Amino acid sequence: MSGTGDDTGVTDDDNEETGAETETTATSGGDPDTDAKPHSIQREILEQALGEYDFQIFKALNEDGRVSDTELAERIDLSRSALRRRRENLLERDIIDVHAVLVLQELDMAYADALVTLDSSASSDERANLISKLIDEELIYSLDSCLGEYDLYVRLWHRSLGDVKSYTWELFEGEEIVDSYQIVPMVHTWKAWDKELDRPE
């Protein structure tokens, strides 16, 4: 799957593959990187959505967000200028984001998911105001709207489980449009942000 085309916002001129890749492709008659790897459903889906090169950029940055343009360009057989244009295009389109994240379990912090049900009669403005308030909360790690039994899926953290429960109570008890909420304490995270954090021994 090519990374070129209007869907990526990067033109054919930006695909400045190095001579090494061109020679290898011509000799093998295919993509050596794809041929050497077992089937990956993630790769299949994202290469279709992003293109081959942008998928490889995502995977490399996901493994190490500090990797240099020079090293990454060599790894996926693009010129450094073409690599930089592709990476900046992905960032500008908000498809990827490179930032520091807290691995809460490594800090011995308590964290939990709050499953929140809102009053069905709440207006769109009331829902938007609550969501905006939660976005601004420093100890909320992630916030999602859901379909089904719950309306909001909130991951939050604090020093201890008792603090998590108190914090959750402070967030939702005074909110008229919150019909109910359930706290589900987390004990361990094995995988997050498409990264393996731990594995059972």
TrEMBL record:
Keywords: DNA-binding, Transcription, Transcription regulation. It comes from the Archaea. Residues 21-31 have a biased composition (Low complexity). Residues 1-39 are annotated as: Disordered. GO terms for cellular component: cytosol. SUPFAM superfamilies: Winged helix' DNA-binding domain (SSF46785). InterPro entries: AsnC-type_HTH_dom, Tscrpt_reg_AsnC-like, WH-like_DNA-bd_sf, WH_DNA-bd_sf. Residues 9-20 have a biased composition (Acidic residues). One of its GO terms (biological process) is response to amino acid. Gene3D superfamilies: Winged helix-like DNA-binding domain superfamily/Winged helix DNA-binding domain. GO terms for molecular function: sequence-specific DNA binding. PANTHER family: LEUCINE-RESPONSIVE REGULATORY PROTEIN, TRANSCRIPTIONAL REGULATOR AZLB. This is Transcriptional regulator. It comes from Halobiforma nitratireducens JCM 10879. The lineage of its organism: Archaea, Methanobacteriati, Methanobacteriota, Stenosarchaea group, Halobacteria.
